[in-house]
TrEMBL record:
Keywords: Membrane, Transmembrane, Transmembrane helix, Transport
Membrane topology summary: Multi-pass membrane protein
Protein name: Major facilitator superfamily protein
Cited InterPro entries: BT1, MFS_trans_sf
SUPFAM superfamilies registered for this protein in UniProt: MFS general substrate transporter (SSF103473)
Length: 242
């Protein structure tokens, strides 16, 4: 009789364990949905801004050709020189994989890349020397594309890592749709602004403002809310596997 009573499960304990498991599952599902929402907001707007880069580039080409009276060879030189940072995209990916900043390895690089773009386009919009002296202009274009390359690689890695971890298909399609929408809107609005205003510096300022919103969004989003591995947890898992 005693053995039978020992093997019996206390209904109160059973009910409490069931409630704890239910609350834990609800908490995990809530955090997962919040992380997905943060990712969609961050990467959706980020890819849209990435596609919208054609908006200030239309203004820059117009400025160099009409206001600075550059010949086609010099214009092509500036464009090709500015694209040099894009060649090093694999290096940015390796750097973000290996080097954690503040315990995170995606969002800090997105913020750094966006900040470089803000400084570049903001300087060309507000500082006359930056948009009129060719060497300084080339430096601004170089740093702008450097920031864009870092941001693009970090966003691509963030989307791929989150989708693989949570087994969510279609995140890349969502990102490319936002990218395409930004490109279409940027080309249409860029042509409209140039026809109506002919003020490329004002277009630089508009794009710098959009980048500022992206910077705020990337700084206010925590990488832990996305469920990505923290630096300490990552090193612990690596050391335990070794």
């Amino acid at each position: 009789m005693t053995q039978k009573s020992d093997n019996m499960v206390d209904p109160v304990v059973f009910y409490l364990n069931k409630v704890k498991k239910k609350r834990a599952s609800e908490k995990n599902s809530s955090s997962s949905s919040n992380g997905l929402r943060d990712l969609l907001n961050l990467c959706g707007f980020g890819y849209w801004v990435q596609g919208f880069r054609c908006f200030p580039w239309l203004a820059l080409n117009f400025h160099m050709a009409n206001n600075m009276n550059m010949n086609p060879s010099t214009l092509q030189l500036v464009q090709n020189f500015g694209n040099l940072p894009m060649v090093a995209k694999p290096l940015y990916g390796i750097l973000s994989d290996a080097l954690y900043i503040g315990g995170a390895h995606r969002l800090p690089y997105i913020a750094i890349g966006v900040l470089l773009q803000i400084l570049s386009w903001g300087s060309m919009a507000s500082i006359p020397v930056a948009s009129e002296v060719l060497p300084i202009l080339m430096a601004c274009v170089l740093f702008s594309n450097l920031g864009a390359g870092i941001t693009e690689v970090s966003k691509d890695a963030l989307v791929a890592e989150y989708g693989q971890k949570n087994k969510i298909n279609g995140l890349q399609s969502y990102a490319f749709m936002a990218l395409a929408a930004g490109g279409v809107l940027g080309n249409c609005l860029g042509g409209f602004f140039l026809l109506k205003t002919r003020q490329p510096k004002f277009m630089f300022l508009i794009f710098a403002s959009l980048l500022s919103l992206q910077l705020v969004l990337s700084l206010t989003t925590k990488e832990e809310s996305l469920g990505l591995p923290h630096a300490l947890k990552y090193h612990e898992s690596v050391s335990s596997s070794i």
